Structure formats: C-alpha cells, structure tokens
Prior knowledge:
It comes from Hydrocarboniclastica marina. It is built from nine helices and 15 strands. The chain is α/β, with parallel strands linked by helices.
Amino acid sequence: MPHIYQRNTGPCAQQPHPLDAEARLIYDLKLRLGSMHACQRLGIEREAESKVIGQGLNLFHPENWYSMHAAIRLCLRMVGLLKRGQRNSRRIRVVENRFVHPHLPASFEGYRILHLSDLHVDMDEANLHNLIECVRPLEYDLCVLTGDYRRATSGPVEDALDGMRRLRPHLQGDVLTVLGNHDSIRMLPSLEEMGYQCLMNEHVAIQSDEDTLWIAGVDDPHYYRADNMEKATEAFPAGAFSLLLSHTPEIYRQAAHGGFSLFLCGHTHGGQICLPGGYPLTLDANCPRFVGKGLWQYEGMQGYTSAGSGTSIVNVRLNCPPEVTLHTLSRGPR
C-alpha cells in the first residue's frame, strides 16, 4: 500500500509571549514556513488582499469588487436565471479522468487521485452539504485539494475553517492541499490541525514497493505570487515522475519546462457562467483557453484544470456544472 514520507520544512523563530495570540500565530507560521515566506505572505495580505486592480498576474480582480457581485445577482434575477443558476451550482458531478503516461512507475498503475478545487465552503450551505454527500462513497488512494476554501478574499476566516472542518471526516486517508488567492495564510495552522497536509512550496514522496511518486505543491501563484517551484522540488531526483499541485494553471509553462509529468489545478471555475456549449465569458486568469478547463497537454506534461465544486462572486453556474474529479493513473494498454 503506498504511503507518504519526507517533507521539507522551514527554520524556526523566536518564542512569543504565551498570552499574545497574534504573536503566537506569527511565530507558528515562521516556524512552519520559515521567516521569509511567512513575513512576505502576511505583508502582501495586509497591503493587497482586497485590491481590484493591479495585484498579481491579472490586472483586474472581479472577486474583490464586492459592489459588482450585487449587480451581477440583480441582472441574473431580472432575466430569470438566478434560481436556475443556483440549482445548477448545487448539482455536483463526479468526473472521471485517465492520465496515460508511459513513464508512470509500474507500482502506480491504476492509482486513483480524488481532486477537489475551489470549494468556497462558506459560500452556500447547500453546496457544502452536497459536496460531502458526493465524496462520501468514492474510493481512491489519495485526495488533493487545489485551493480557494474561503468565499471572500479578505476578512474573517472562521466560517471557511468551520466548513473545512466539517468536510475533513468524509475525505479518506491522506489529503494534500495548496492555498489559493481566496485563502489567508492565517488559515494554515488550523487546516493542518484538522489533518490537511498543506504543501507550501514543499513536496512529499509517495512510496509504493520500490517506486516513488513525487508530489510538489506551491503557494498561490495567481494573486499573492508566493509560489517557489525551485524550493518545492529541491530534493527531486533527476528524471523523477512528478506531479505539481497549483491553485492556478497560469504557471503551466514553468511547470512543463521544469520537468513535471502531471499538473493539477483549478481557479478558473471553468468560467462558472458560460455561453451555451460551455464557452466561458472569462477565466479570470492570465492563461490561454486550452488550459482553462479539463484535460490538456503542453510539451511533455499532461494537466487537468478542475471546474471546481463551489462558486465565487455569486452562487450561480450556467452551462458549467460543478465537479469533483477522479484521476486514474495508467501506463497505457497492456
């Protein structure tokens, strides 16, 4: 049975006063991530977490323009699509995907990965309930989450943490996660206490018999630009079969040329509100459309961009159903 071992961690920091909660949080983050990463992420959050224009890889960030959310909701109500879109957003489907790669280690033939993304667990109680019911009966070897667990991009994190706490008992075994542009670094200690293993520019190695699957995860590349692929892969042996977890597909070129075999991400919601035929009005990402949703390939790397199981801005989906994805790894026909 495959098991996970080896994780790289950062240096420690000075012990805070035991009664100072804020100092304790900062100390824990520095201990967990190293002073540089922790201070950079906290500083960027204070300065830029709710900017509409000018931060991150995208010039414009509609998720931070809160007055626009009400305008979109009003427009959908006026044209009679609000209730329909809300119903659509709660009909989560299981999507099966098969990665066929000739260099997959033999022991990982048939290995199954449950991939969840963009949960936004505090957006809609009915959606969270349906997500739990959707994943409960599924069978897989490993679960990965590719970011965006909170509804908002700033402010309190308690409701999102409560939703993640309710979800965790229904996810089997090890759960690897990365953070997205909606997620505060302040969520990290609580998520890890719940049993989510967050990869913050770090890696794990999954061993099966004599074979190893190397998995790296990076901090949010889209808004906070806190990803460090080199640090995440510093212990990878040459030619290793590897998987990258990223919140967004926007770093697909770097990942492919960095030698990754597989790439899992989300962020785009597949467009969330699409024209008939599933054509997205926007992906809210600085990337070409071919990596915006579903299975894709670039150079020698295969990738999958999840449409996500939750919603952002408004809890509506049109022509773009929410999903959880079961990836099966294979070497191909035998």
